[in-house]
C-alpha cells in the first residue's frame, strides 16, 4: 500500500471513530426524572418514556420515591441539582415552588388546552394528571354481609367497620384529605381543623386497623381480607381493580378531594428535554395512555376516554370541577404542626 493510500486509510478510520464517538455521546444524553415508584413507575417505563427517548435521542434515568422523598431530594441537591424533572403531589409541589426549587416553563400551545385545575400560578409547574381521593371498599365482602356500599365520609365513623378500616397517616396526602373532610362534616375546614382531629381521636380511631402509607401494604391488607374499607386515591384503586380484585371507588356525597399530579423543571438545570418531556406528558395521547393504564384523570381537555375507560377516574369538566380543592397556601405552613398533633392525639 502506498504512503498516500495508508494516509487516506488512517484518516478515514479516524473520521469514522470520531463519528462513532459523537453518536455515542449524543445517545448518552441523560434526563433525570424524580417521580412515584410502584405501578406508576412501571407505566412510565413501559408505556410512556420509550417513545420520548427515541424521538429525542435521550435516556431517562428514573429516581423513584414518594412526594416527600422527592422534595427532600431536591432540597438536599439544591446547590448541585441532579434532577431535571420532578413529579409530585400538589401539596409537596407547592412547598417546592415556595422554596424556589423549580424554574420557569416555556410557553407552549398545549398549556391552552388544560383544565383550570391544572394551572399553577407562577408558571413554574403544571398539573399533568388528577386523582380523586375517596373511599375504596371490597364489593364481595360487602355483598356477603348484606351491607350497602359506603356513600359518605361519615361512613368512617360506623362501628361496624371496627378493625376493618385503613386510613393513610396524616403525612400522606390521602390522610390529610380525610382529616379535612371529617372536619367539614362537623362544621370545620382546613382553617378550622379541630373537628377533624376530634372525629378521628374520639370515633374513627377505634375502627382503624392501620394507618398505612404503603400502597403495597394497603393492597396486601385488602387481599388478605383483613381490611374492607379505606381512604385512597382513584388511581391506586383503579390499579388494584385492574388486577381483578373486587374493589370499587366511591365518590362520597360530600365530595371527593382533588389530588393534583404536578410536574416542574428543576431550578439550576437547563436541559431543553425537560420542557419537552412535560409537554409530551400533557399531549392527549399520553394523557389517555396514563388514564387507561394507571387511572390518572386527564387534565388536557382534548383527551378522550370511553365510558368503560373512565369508570372511577375523574374525567371531564363536570366531574373534575366538582372535586374539593385543598387550600395548600394555608395548609403547608401548618402541616408540620398538624403532623405533631396527629402523632400525639390520634396515633399516639
From TrEMBL:
The keyword Transferase is assigned to this record: no
Superkingdom, natural source: Bacteria
Keywords assigned: Periplasm, Signal
Taxonomic lineage: Bacteria, Pseudomonadati, Pseudomonadota, Alphaproteobacteria, Hyphomicrobiales
A GO MF term: thiamine pyrophosphate binding
Record-given protein name: ABC transporter substrate-binding component
A Gene Ontology term for the protein's cellular component: outer membrane-bounded periplasmic space
GO biological process: thiamine transport
Signal peptide residues on this chain, from the entry's feature table: 1-26
Source species of the chain: Aureimonas altamirensis
Listed transmembrane segments: none
A Pfam family reported for this protein in Swiss-Prot or TrEMBL: SBP_bac_8
Amino acid at each position: 500500500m502506498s504512503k498516500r493510500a495508508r494516509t487516506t486509510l488512517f484518516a478515514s478510520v479516524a473520521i469514522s471513530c470520531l463519528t462513532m464517538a459523537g453518536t455515542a455521546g449524543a445517545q448518552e444524553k441523560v434526563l433525570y426524572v424524580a417521580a412515584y415508584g410502584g405501578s406508576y413507575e412501571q407505566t412510565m417505563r413501559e408505556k410512556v418514556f420509550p417513545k420520548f427517548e427515541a424521538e429525542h435521542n435521550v435516556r431517562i434515568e428514573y429516581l423513584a420515591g414518594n412526594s416527600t422523598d422527592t422534595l427532600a431530594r431536591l432540597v438536599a441537591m439544591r446547590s448541585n441539582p441532579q434532577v431535571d424533572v420532578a413529579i409530585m403531589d400538589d401539596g409537596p409541589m407547592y412547598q417546592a415552588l415556595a422554596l424556589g426549587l423549580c424554574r420557569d416553563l416555556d410557553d407552549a400551545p398545549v398549556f391552552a388546552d388544560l383544565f383550570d385545575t391544572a394551572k399553577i400560578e407562577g408558571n413554574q409547574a403544571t398539573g399533568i394528571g388528577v386523582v380523586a381521593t375517596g373511599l375504596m371498599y371490597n364489593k364481595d365482602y360487602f355483598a356477603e354481609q348484606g351491607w350497602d356500599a359506603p356513600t359518605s365520609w361519615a361512613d368512617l365513623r360506623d362501628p361496624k367497620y371496627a378493625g376493618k378500616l385503613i386510613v393513610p397517616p396524616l403525612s400522606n396526602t390521602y390522610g390529610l384529605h380525610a382529616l379535612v373532610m371529617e372536619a367539614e362534616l362537623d362544621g370545620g375546614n382546613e382553617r378550622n381543623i379541630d373537628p377533624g382531629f376530634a372525629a378521628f381521636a374520639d370515633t374513627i380511631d377505634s375502627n382503624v386497623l392501620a394507618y398505612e402509607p404503603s400502597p403495597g401494604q394497603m393492597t396486601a391488607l385488602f387481599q388478605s381480607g383483613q381490611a374492607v374499607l379505606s381512604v385512597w386515591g382513584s388511581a391506586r384503586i383503579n390499579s388494584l381493580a385492574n388486577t381483578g380484585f373486587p374493589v370499587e371507588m366511591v365518590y362520597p356525597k360530600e365530595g371527593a378531594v382533588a389530588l393534583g399530579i404536578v410536574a416542574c423543571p428543576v431550578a439550576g438545570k437547563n436541559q431543553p428535554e425537560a420542557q419537552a418531556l412535560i409537554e409530551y406528558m400533557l399531549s392527549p395521547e399520553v394523557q389517555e395512555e396514563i388514564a387507561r393504564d394507571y387511572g390518572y384523570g386527564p387534565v388536557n381537555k382534548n383527551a378522550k376516554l370511553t365510558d368503560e375507560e373512565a369508570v372511577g377516574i375523574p374525567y371531564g369538566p363536570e366531574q373534575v370541577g366538582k372535586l374539593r380543592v385543598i387550600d395548600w397556601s394555608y395548609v403547608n405552613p401548618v402541616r408540620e404542626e398538624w403532623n405533631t398533633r396527629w402523632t400525639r392525639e390520634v396515633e399516639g
